[in-house]
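Reader question, answered in our methods column.
A reader sent in the components of a multi-part assembly and asked whether the whole thing could be modeled at once rather than chain by chain. We filled in our standard form and ran it. Here is what they sent:
COMPLEX SIZE: two components
ENTRIES:
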Amino acid sequence: MFRYVFTETMKRTWRNRKLRLLFVLTVLLILVYCTLVLPRTSTNAIFDATATEAQVENHYGTKENQLSSGTVQFTQFTSSNTYSQAKKDFEELSQLHYAIQDGDLARIMQLTDLGIRGVVSDEGDVPSLFPARESSDFALQGYYYASSSTEDLNTNQVSTHMLEDKTAIQQLYRFVERYLPFAFLLITAFIASEVLVSDRKHPTIKAGKPIDWRMYIFYQSVAVFVICGLYMIGTMVIYTAVNGLLFGFGPLGIEITSYAMTPQENTLINTYRGDMSFFGYQNGWIYVGLSMVFILVMMYVLIRVSMLFSLIFRQDMIVLVLSILLVTVSSIYLADSSAGIFGIDPWYLPHNYIEIGRVLMGEMNYIAFTDQFTFVNGLIAMAFTLLVVEVLLFVTSFIMNRQRFERQVR
Amino acid sequence: MKLLKFCILASAVMLSGCAFHGIMPTQYDGEPLERDGEAIEAYVNDGQIININADRYPFIESNDLTGLAEVEGSDDDTEVIEAGEYTVPDDFEPGIYQLEIGGDVSSSAVVVYDSDDVRVLETSLLGRNGTSHVMLDDGYRLEFKTRFGTLNVTPIESEMVEAGEEGLVIPQGIYIVGEHIEAGDYSLKSEELLVMRNDGVPEVFWNSYGVTYEHVMERTMTDDYRPDELAESDLEVIVNLSEGDVVIVEKVLSILKN
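And here is the structure of the entire assembly that came back:
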């Protein structure tokens, strides 16, 4: 019976023109972004060659000017020494300039690691759904760690694509960090909102199915989950493959930021949360994998919630709007994720995990002065949520039984 | 079957790796990044920077630096000079001099030009980093630049720089290998080593993981200088110094004999 429900749901989803259009548009969007937008995106995040060369000349001019005028001294008011500073800057930046001239990216990375940054024009200027958050020093620290993976430096296997975060793995984790949870949860809400409700258009066929009502809803949920999961995995595979072929797949051992403020030092008053000791590394591929597993869990929870809404409201648009509100509520209303509700710690509240990429990277820990926003705590939060939803669904399915559900609303 | 073949191909590309940089050309500022294989190899293998210019390293244009090997020390008296230009032999005899800033100098620059007016040394003398070892030959010119203060110029005899446990910590100046520094293979612990070979070929070595001269000074001052901490990188830069090579030290140099 499961196979029957599953096949039917799959067929109906595939025959749905809106959903077909969505799949096609997704693939098109990926192709356009990867082949047309990304190659023209230059972050200049590590170096701006032209500006660096101009800066080298500036420092040289300042140094020579000080020498020829004989005004080598500490400035009384600023306690700075223009000549020595200009000389030092000129010498350091010259090394970066030589490395750029040689096209030696490994050396550029080494110098950048040392703090010889050259002219960095757009360090924090990355597209974001939440621009205000990017101004925090978390973004800068995160950027620093993401870019300073030194594993491949000595083997000289760095490319500018890597420096500009364009390789497949880097694009994946950037996407996971920013858009992926929202994108897939919204699409899940879109697909799930009309699956159960559309049964009401065929009351004579649906009302007589020889299967328990709750099992029927469960089978449909699983079918939608499989469809959404396949859609997500398929999209990610296409995205990875296209980016990989265009820009390389990126280093397997790439490390990205991991942040946790350790509790014993969590005095909330005296500790600076941007302290470097709280920042660590984690493998980029594992980060992406864990995020995708968590998104799958959230997708299932959302599908069950959507079924609950379908039972209660029996109107797909209302279900869709409510589901979208659920997904976006944390970013619209509850910006302060450090606050608990009804005495429950914030790290056990499911809405704080919707942006799972930021959670796993440690940004929620950063915002909330804690180390409790973890993958495991997220799973616990989701398990409790699912439990509550299942109980509600169970109760609601008794009240809104199949016959009542199929009946026309008058 | 075709899909399977494609998957195998894609997997192979992926597993082979990380060396695959994609079919898009690597770029910066929208321009293709051109790799100079020879320069990169010289840096990776020897720590040598070969594409250098005279703005940053003016000594590379000098033709008579190697002649300094003939200069001998003298035992004249110390002279105290003010900011200005001094020539050899009008103001000083050819020889080896120790320069030391007067106590009232907060910041200064010492620049040495060779007989062709090529700048062979430019160094900043200030505070605890206030001594230098220069060699002046006929036709050479010494510039002392500061707003306030004096410079003590003391003629000295030629002698070897003493090596400590940490290796050689060499103040800024001009040195001859064989007379001031023992010939041999050295590991570069600070960032930069400039050398004019005895056959007149200039070479510049760079160690990205070398300590800065401020760090060298700090470690030396606190007697907490441990060379094993300094070379944590695999990119150790080994430089061979031969008899007659001229070493230019713009910032304090730290090297350890192998």
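What stands out: Confidence is low (pLDDT under 50) at residues 219-233 of chain B. Chain B is about 15% helix and 35% strand.
Send us your own complexes using the same form.
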